[in-house]
């Protein structure tokens, strides 16, 4: 559990700028909350100071140097109330849209080992009522545009805050509660899983989805609480994709997105393939880059004593990407009579065959014996 703390307590509006809030943050309310959680034995993962107070802001804003000063105050309170570093909650911020100068100044002002997670928000698809939203989630060139933000955040951390980690603290794709004809349908998985893959390649450690319940971008249906398609995509990501990210490339169409990690469990590699095309089928083979690892080639046909690989094919029911029913290897994913999540079982495929990625589909594949040096 992460608590968002009121970042405006103790401040006043500037006389010269109605959006700017000035003065020191009052930490007493946060202190009271922490002492209460400790008295009850509650486990809190992290505390974040304010919401979207940085840069060009959404409503109120606070200058970066002042926010950095306040963050050091929060860190001291957390350390005082949680003296054991093994159970101490993390300190997060600023929880807003990326502004290079503001973020870098904040890191410099707060200083070493204060901020545990540098959080920024992503709504790169624009407004939820945009009529072209369904096209954006299928456009590889549009999806690529946000990569610069992830790169800049990572670069800023390397230069000004190597003690912290990059987090996407909030992301729903489209703002204003998402798009009613896209965000809770299968189509949204093109954007969502591509985001998980892309942020990982730029050394982001956490990705917080907006939202579990609420709005069109909810992972659960807001009335029935039945999982929407992105819920199952998230489950498979967490089941299969490990923490070590691998470099991956292909010489095919940009409508084929490819990401690879060391497997979460056991040896080998987990691969995510996303086909944004509604008409082209891709047949994919995998091999080590011979230029990077001479003499250490591994391919789908030459892994260690593993005659088959596991594949998880996600596709929309009836071929309609604007459906809330997702198929796993051709079978609809539905909660059981006991209201449990259905088993997410793979199909086994002969290694002599390529991974076939049908139009408008998403495939996870695990190559258990694939000899990637980083996964050794």
Describe it.
With 376 residues, the chain is an alpha/beta fold. The protein has 2 domains: 2-243, TIM Barrel, CATH 3.20.20.80; 256-289 and 305-368, Golgi alpha-mannosidase II (Immunoglobulin-like, Sandwich), CATH 2.60.40.1180. The protein has 8 helices and 20 strands. Strands 11, 12, 13, 15, 16, 17, 18 and 20 form an 8-stranded antiparallel β-sheet that branches. Strands 1-4-5-6-8-10 form a 6-stranded parallel β-sheet. Strands 2-3 form a two-stranded antiparallel sheet. Helix 1 packs parallel to helix 2 (64-81), helix 2 crosses helix 3 (100-110) and helix 3 packs parallel to helix 6 (147-160).
Keywords:
TIM Barrel; 20 strands; Immunoglobulin-like; 8-stranded antiparallel β-sheet; 6-stranded parallel β-sheet; 2 domains; globular; 376 residues; alpha/beta; 8 helices
Topology:
Blueprint: E1 2-5, E2 12-13, E3 21-22, H1 28-40, E4 46-49, H2 64-81, E5 90-96, H3 100-110, E6 117-122, E7 126-127, H4 133-136, H5 140-144, H6 147-160, E8 165-171, E9 174-175, H7 188-201, E10 204-209, H8 229-240, E11 241-246, E12 256-263, E13 269-275, E14 282-284, E15 308-316, E16 326-328, E17 331-332, E18 347-350, E19 355-357, E20 361-367
Parallel strand pairs: 1-4, 4-5, 5-6, 6-8, 7-9, 8-10
Antiparallel strand pairs: 2-3, 11-12, 12-13, 13-20, 14-19, 15-16, 15-18, 15-20, 16-17
Helix pairs in contact: 1-2, 2-3, 3-6, 7-8
**Sheet with most strands:** 8 strands, antiparallel
The number of distinct helices, counting runs of at least 4 residues, comes to 8
Q: Bin the helical content.
A: 10-25%
Under the CATH scheme, which architecture of the largest domain would be assigned? Alpha-Beta Barrel
Structural class: alpha/beta
CATH superfamily of the largest domain: Glycosidases
Mean pLDDT score, rounded?
94
Total domains, how many?
A: 2
Distance between the termini: 33 Å
What coarse outline follows from CA principal-axis ratios? Answer: globular
- Per DSSP E runs of 2 or more residues, the count of β-strands stands at 20
Uncertain runs are 293-302
Return Rg in Å: 22 Å
Q: What fraction of residues sit in β-strands?
A: 25-35%
CATH class of the largest domain: Alpha Beta
């Amino acid at each position: 559990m992460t608590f968002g703390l009121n970042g405006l307590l103790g401040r006043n509006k500037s006389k010269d700028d109605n959006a700017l809030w000035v003065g020191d943050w009052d930490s007493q309310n946060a202190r009271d909350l922490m002492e209460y959680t400790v008295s009850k034995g509650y486990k809190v993962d992290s505390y974040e100071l304010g919401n979207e107070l940085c840069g060009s802001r959404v409503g109120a804003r606070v200058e970066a140097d002042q926010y950095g000063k306040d963050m050091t105050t929060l860190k001291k309170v957390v350390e005082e109330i949680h003296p054991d570093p093994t159970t101490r909650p993390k300190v997060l911020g600023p929880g807003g849209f990326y502004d290079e100068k503001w973020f870098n100044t904040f890191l410099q002002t707060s200083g070493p080992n204060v901020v545990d997670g540098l959080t920024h928000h992503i709504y790169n698809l624009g407004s939820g009522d945009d009529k072209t939203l369904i096209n954006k989630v299928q456009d590889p060139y549009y999806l690529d545009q946000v990569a610069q933000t992830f790169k800049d955040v990572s670069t800023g951390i390397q230069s000004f805050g190597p003690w912290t980690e990059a987090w996407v603290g909030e992301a729903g794709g489209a703002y204003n509660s998402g798009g009613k004809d896209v965000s809770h349908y299968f189509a949204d998985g093109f954007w969502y899983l591509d985001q998980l893959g892309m942020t990982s390649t730029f050394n982001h450690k956490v990705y917080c989805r907006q939202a579990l319940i609420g709005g069109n971008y909810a992972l659960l249906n807001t009335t029935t609480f039945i999982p929407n398609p992105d819920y199952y995509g998230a489950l498979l990501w967490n089941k299969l994709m490990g923490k070590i990210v691998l470099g991956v490339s292909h010489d095919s169409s940009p409508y084929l997105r490819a990401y690879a990690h060391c497997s979460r469990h056991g040896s080998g590699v987990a691969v995510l393939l996303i086909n944004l095309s509604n008409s082209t089928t891709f047949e994919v083979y995998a091999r080590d880059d011979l230029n990077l690892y001479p003499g250490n080639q591994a391919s789908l046909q030459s892994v260690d004593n593993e005659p088959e690989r596991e594949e998880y094919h996600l596709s929309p029911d009836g071929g309609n990407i604007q459906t809330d029913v997702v198929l796993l290897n051709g079978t609809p994913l539905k909660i059981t009579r006991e209201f449990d999540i259905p088993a997410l079982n793979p199909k086994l495929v002969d290694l002599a065959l390529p991974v076939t990625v049908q139009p408008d589909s998403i495939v996870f594949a695990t190559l258990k014996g694939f000899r990637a040096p980083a996964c050794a």
